[in-house]
């Protein structure tokens, strides 16, 4: 790979033209988005806003009223799948959901989009960032990231938009594998590796003498190459505010990695509440928080920063991450060493059997999901702006798509024999 310029490299293979930048009057969604110019509702007072099923129905079905018909969270009209794509979709193995887990059944992702996103992301991984050696190919394919991201972003206008999220997801998982987990990861020295990788997202501004050395370091390993490229695509597609939001949530993620690494170094099992605190940082939050960028619009920064919006996003990240704990439980038990997940922590800290602890973890997830939906519905009623409504529905779609992928990725996951 040629030596870099003093500034971070830009994408070497941009997607086909047509991907919009920050929305304006001529944006993809047209004039109805300008309804957001109305002043936001006043922040909630200490008076409790009653939650009703009507509020939840409105959240899940989309905004109503003049000018909002185009904001319903429905996938764009799908092209008829090729015979090969249709056959692959029909032959895909089906998993069963965790018994008792509260979730919503959603349709399978569009097979045409899945096929195209899968093709593009593999080309990016191999040709642009040299992400993995040949013997990792089966694992890369088994992750089914195309199905994952198409299912989580049903309102993405184009495949180009889905690719924004897909590159970031693959980059995040490459860092997790290579720095923390299966492929050479270790808690020893993790802080240094994470900080240097984070500069691929949040660039270093230093002297002319040292800038080239930093820029060269961005090619040093697969996670940094992937972070650099994926973030360059993201910055090109989104606004400065959306990029800064993403950097903030990735810093949260990296802090969660460090807490878990510290416990591993000390061979410490945290209290259940401590584990859940760590999981609020080491979780999926960076993924649903960019749902507006992937959707081709922008939730304004002041609305994203509202405490009630931040609570909704945090609850969504917490619930979806416990889904991962539950579906990956047997996979982690079979891996070397002790992997902390919610059932393992509950079993040790509350002196329960493996089965009892797992079933209690299901209850924790369900409580988080109900809290997410209740808080989201209350916010939708309190702030009925089109961009807020659409963003909340995008986060809800991400939650549902995340579960659908975990349930049906039988290459990676299987359920314990507790029922």
Verbal overview:
The chain has 18 helices and no strands. The chain has helices at 53-61, 83-91, 111-128, 137-143, 145-152, 159-180, 190-198, 211-217, 222-237, 240-266, 272-279, 291-295, 301-304, 307-327, 329-334, 342-349, 354-382, 386-408. The chain is globular.
Keywords:
disordered N terminus; mainly alpha; 419 residues; single chain
Topology:
Elements: H1 53-61, H2 83-91, H3 111-128, H4 137-143, H5 145-152, H6 159-180, H7 190-198, H8 211-217, H9 222-237, H10 240-266, H11 272-279, H12 291-295, H13 301-304, H14 307-327, H15 329-334, H16 342-349, H17 354-382, H18 386-408
Number of strands: 0
Content-based structural category? mainly alpha
Give the percentage of residues in beta strands: under 5%
* Helix and strand element order: HHHHHHHHHHHHHHHHHH
Cα Rg: 21 Å
Brief write-up:
The chain has 419 residues and is mainly alpha-helical.
């Amino acid at each position: 790979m040629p030596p870099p310029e003093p500034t971070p490299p830009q994408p070497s293979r941009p997607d086909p033209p047509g991907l919009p930048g920050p929305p304006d009057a001529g944006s993809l969604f047209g004039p109805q988005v300008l309804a957001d110019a109305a002043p936001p509702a006043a922040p909630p007072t200490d008076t409790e806003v009653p939650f009703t099923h009507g509020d939840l129905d409105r959240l899940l079905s989309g905004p109503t009223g003049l000018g909002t018909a185009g904001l319903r969270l429905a996938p764009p009209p799908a092209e008829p799948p090729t015979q090969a794509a249709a056959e692959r979709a029909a032959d895909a193995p089906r998993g069963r959901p965790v018994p008792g887990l509260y979730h919503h059944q959603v349709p399978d992702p569009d097979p045409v989009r899945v096929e195209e996103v899968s093709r593009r992301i593999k080309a990016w991984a191999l040709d642009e960032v040299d992400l993995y050696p040949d013997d990792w190919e089966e694992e890369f394919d088994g992750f089914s990231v195309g199905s994952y991201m198409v299912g989580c972003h049903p309102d993405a206008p184009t495949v180009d938009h889905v690719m924004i999220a897909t590159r970031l997801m693959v980059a995040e998982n490459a860092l997790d594998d290579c720095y923390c987990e299966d492929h050479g990861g270790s808690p020893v020295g993790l802080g240094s590796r994470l900080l240097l990788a984070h500069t691929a997202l949040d660039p270093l501004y230093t002297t002319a003498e040292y800038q080239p050395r930093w820029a060269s370091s961005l090619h040093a390993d697969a996670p940094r190459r992937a972070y650099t490229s994926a973030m360059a695509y993201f910055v090109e597609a989104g606004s400065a505010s959306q990029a800064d939001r993403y950097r903030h949530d990735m810093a949260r993620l990296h802090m969660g990695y460090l807490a878990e690494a510290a416990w591993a170094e000390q061979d410490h099992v945290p209290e259940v509440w401590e584990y859940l605190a760590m999981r609020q940082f080491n979780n999926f939050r960076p993924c649903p928080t960019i749902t507006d960028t992937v959707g081709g619009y922008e939730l304004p920064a002041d609305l994203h920063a509202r405490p009630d919006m931040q609570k909704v996003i945090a609850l969504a990240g917490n619930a979806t991450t416990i889904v991962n704990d539950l579906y990956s439980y047997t996979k982690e038990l079979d891996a070397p060493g002790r992997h902390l997940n919610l059932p393992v922590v509950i079993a040790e800290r509350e002196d329960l059997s493996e089965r009892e602890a797992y079933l209690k973890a299901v209850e924790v997830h369900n409580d988080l999901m109900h809290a997410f939906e209740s808080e989201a519905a209350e916010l939708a009623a309190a702030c009925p702006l089109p961009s807020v409504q659409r963003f909340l529905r995008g986060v809800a779609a991400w939650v549902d798509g995340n579960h659908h992928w975990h349930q049906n990725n039988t290459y990676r996951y299987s359920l314990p024999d507790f029922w």
